[in-house]
Design brief:
Elements (H helix, E strand, L loop, with lengths): L4 E6 L5 H7 L6 E7 L3 H5 L2 H4 L3 E3 L2 H10 L4 E4 L6 H10 L3 E4 L7 H14 L3 E3 L7 H11 L6 E9 L4 H7 L6 H4 L7 H11 L3 E10 L1 H4 L9 E10 L4 E8 L6 E7 L2 E6 L6 E5 L12 E4 L21 H15 L7 H19 L5 E2 L6 H4 L27
Parallel strand pairs: 1-2, 1-4, 2-3, 4-5, 5-6, 7-10
Antiparallel strand pairs: 7-11, 8-9, 8-15, 9-10, 11-12, 12-13, 13-14
Helix pairs in contact: 5-6, 6-13, 7-10
Length: about 400
């Protein structure tokens, strides 16, 4: 569609930064409606919402949207409910941009792909970490071809918090954060590596480690493992290691890609720079030092790059909005289309099954192929309870 994006937001807390960014793109985007069951979250984003209609009930929000030409929805609702609402919105004739993760079960991965194909609507994941400025510089270095054959990569996402903060982030007993296995929030670790290396997962093996510290608060946070780690074989022949959202006492996030001629990494001690290393015998002609700390030049990433400077997640939020505009208005396919998005979700889900079985290796299905999807169309294994505490079929921690 080349028409203006008339978007609605479902979820105003995480959606808040995107509401602010999209409200500035008046030539391309109009915010039609915002829905959040917590009215305070809507009030906190009043400036960006402007004249948009506000709701605390999703059905009323969707009905209003259909009546008033809403053609897209940004999903910033609960982590484990994105696929469900994405399907509802696409069936209602709206394109979808989904935050966090595509789906919590393999069945919903299948359902989501089939819905995109059946309805012809556009779907993308708002995974923003690949477009942090330092990761954009890593991408440039990798695409320069001087690292040789890519052999190994790693993505690590660390997000520890105090008990007080965990209480704030877990407002009720059956909130998704309390029950999320450690591998499930894989997008910020895996997403950048997939983008940087243009690769997809083929096989996954997982492990998790118990945290005595988190076990002390298991009454309100039953997911008391401290880290979930996945080891993957990728479709480009490379191997890769990913965390989910960990509770380790460590730096916030880091990424590393190694070839047989050189390597690049960022995060933690690099301070926003990219560390590039060659061996003395693989150093390209014209490069003075085998080791360099590269300061990314924001302006070199295009005329709009300076606008990303003050956006959230190292500029990543800004680029997600630009990618959405290019996709929804001009049919420029995003990297994280529905198939790459569900591949990440499936890796997280199967990585957790592997952790529960001490590292068993699992094949990650190719969701572009109906014959592979059909195997998982009834696979509803789920660690998340409903609001009444029902529906859990697999544990959320490796130790009872």
């Amino acid at each position: 569609m080349n028409e203006k994006i008339r978007i609605g937001f479902f979820g105003a807390w995480r959606g808040g930064s995107y509401i602010s960014l999209m409200s500035k793109e008046k030539d391309d985007i109009e915010i039609v409606a915002v829905c959040d069951k917590n009215a305070d979250k809507i009030e906190n984003n009043k400036e960006g919402i402007g004249d948009a209609k506000v709701f605390t009930d999703f059905d009323e929000f969707l009905s209003y949207g259909k009546e008033h030409g809403m053609n897209a929805v940004f999903l910033a609702n609960f982590f484990n409910e994105h696929a469900k609402y994405a399907i509802i919105c696409m069936e209602a004739g709206m394109n979808v941009i989904s935050e966090c993760t595509a789906a919590p079960t393999l069945k919903e991965c299948v359902d989501l792909c089939r819905c995109v194909e059946r309805t012809g609507k556009k779907y993308m994941l708002a995974e923003n970490y690949p477009w942090m400025t330092e990761n954009l510089e890593m991408k440039r270095q990798i695409e320069g071809g001087t690292l040789g054959t890519l052999l190994y990569a790693e993505g690590e996402y660390n997000h520890s918090a105090s008990v007080e903060d965990l209480h704030t982030l877990t407002p009720f007993k059956y909130h998704w954060r309390a029950w999320m296995p450690r591998t499930y929030y894989v997008t910020h670790a895996m997403g950048p590596v997939m983008y940087l290396t243009n690769s997809m997962p083929k096989y996954v093996s997982g492990r998790a480690a118990h945290s005595d510290l988190l076990y002390q608060i298991k009454d309100f946070r039953p997911n008391h493992d401290g880290v979930g780690m996945m080891f993957c074989e990728m479709d480009n022949g490379m191997i890769a290691r990913f965390t989910g959202c960990t509770a380790m006492a460590s730096d916030y996030s880091r990424y590393r890609v190694c070839g047989d001629k050189g390597s690049v990494e960022t995060g933690g001690y690099t301070g926003g720079k990219v560390r590039r290393l060659y061996e003395s015998y693989t150093k390209p002609e014209g490069v003075e030092d085998t080791l360099a700390m590269i300061e990314p030049d924001l302006a070199s990433f295009g005329p709009k790059a300076e606008e990303a400077k003050n956006a959230g997640h190292g500029g990543g939020d800004f680029w997600i909005v630009q990618i959405m505009i290019d996709y929804f208005r001009h049919d420029v396919e995003p990297f994280f289309n529905v198939y790459r998005s569900v591949a990440m979700s499936a890796t997280a889900i199967l990585g957790w099954r592997s952790a529960l079985s001490h590292g068993e290796n699992f094949y990650v299905p190719d969701f572009t192929k109906e014959e592979e999807r059909r195997v998982y169309e009834n696979d509803t294994a789920n660690p998340f309870p409903d609001m009444e505490g029902k529906g859990v079929t697999i544990p959320c921690a490796t130790r009872v």
